[in-house]
Amino acid sequence: SQTIHQWPATLVQPVGSPLSLECTVEGTSNPNLYWYRQAAGRGLQLLFYSVGIGQISSEVPQNLSASRPQDRQFILSSKKLLLSDSGFYLCAWSPGVGADGYTFGSGTRLTVV
Amino acid sequence: GENVEQHPSTLSVQEGDSAVIKCTYSDSASNYFPWYKQELGKRPQLIIDIRSNVGEKKDQRIAVTLNKTAKHFSLHITETQPEDSAVYFCAASLRPTGYSSASKIIFGSGTRLSIRP
Fold first, then answer.
1. Which of A29, A88, A94, B85 has the fewest CB atoms within 10 Å, measured from its CB?
2. Do B93 and A106 touch (CB under 8 A)?
């Protein structure tokens, strides 16, 4: 069966520090991968998605970037965090080639101080 | 791009009563409408979904309806129980141009459902 792993679970970082959040999927190949952010008490905002290695699409201009160095690995990064980057970051995957259903990772709660 | 509106933002119902959450979407090309339940501090989990070629789908106490003409879809929970308390998100799926194998899911803003004992 397929599983999605996301870490760390919680992170407290100072303003101006770098960020790296990692997400990996097991038990499937060529998944579509997604990064969402959820601000406190708010909805889910799509940040990036990827349909393959090295293919990244950005949804909103921001202080973050994403990379997909391997088929089942998706990384969210920042060179210098801002206070507004605080939130709950969720990675998700769906089967490739036209399928629709998402499965979310357990999330990373990021607090920028 | 796609925009999904969700109402109400909060909903409180007596245990055993029904709860209804309504959503509208803007892009008529959307063809997949999932609903997610998120308990406090946890990941959203898919509870039911419906495709544009179907008007209604039911799974035990949960049902979804879709009106493609009006671009409305709704979640109905009957015989509510305390464990139904959570935040519920509707969503619509839109295939992006240039990446035909990926479906972006755009979420509504969520409804916080509370079940009163």
1. A29
2. no
